Amino acid sequence: MAENYIFEMDWKVRDYECDLQGIVNNAVYMHYLEYTRNEFLNKTGTNLADLHSMGIDIVLARITMALKTPLRPGDEVLSKLNLHKEKIKYVFEQDLFRKSDNKIVCKATVELVCLINGKLGNSEFVDNLLMKQQ
Fold first, then answer.
1. How many Å apart are CA 91 and CA 109, to the nearest integer?
2. How confident is the model at residue 37 (pLDDT cuts 50, 70, 90)?
3. Closest Cα partner for 132 from 58, 40, 44?
4. How does pLDDT run across 42-70, given as a tens digit for each residue?
5. pLDDT band at 134, cuts 50/70/90?
6. How far, CA to CA in Å, does 42 sit from each of 9, 46, 87, 101, 128?
7. Beta strands in the chain (DSSP E)
8. Cα–Cα distance between 114 and 27 in angstroms, integer?
9. CA 89 to chain centre
10. CA separation for the pair 60, 35 (Å, rounded)
11. What is the pTM of this model?
12. Consecutive H or E run containing 38
């Protein structure tokens, strides 16, 4: 993944996100990745509810995720993303880092597509919204 990220944010791991082993449960990483994408979208001045009201839904098509280093309660997480478009797909390259030592925690490639009034398609509005962030 490229090192020149277009968006980043951070937060702290909460106790309830961890399993009996004392590490963040694997399913929680999906939430972390989505949280980052939603905050990125909010930065554009809109959100998923606004898009839905216009008949546009951005939905998950595929995700590939590699978990590298476990997180524990209280760890600070730095989440970074890049974005490019491949035909009809918006491809987010997302990396999560543990802030205390900058170790990579998770590497993910997330592919999203647009449903326009329920049908798969390209949205010029979403293109302009997301791709201007580059």
1. 7
2. very high
3. 44
4. 998 999 999 999 999 999 999 999 999 99
5. low
6. 12, 5, 24, 29, 14
7. 7-12, 56-67, 76-86, 89-98, 103-116, 119-121
8. 24
9. 14
10. 13
11. 0.92
12. helix 28-43
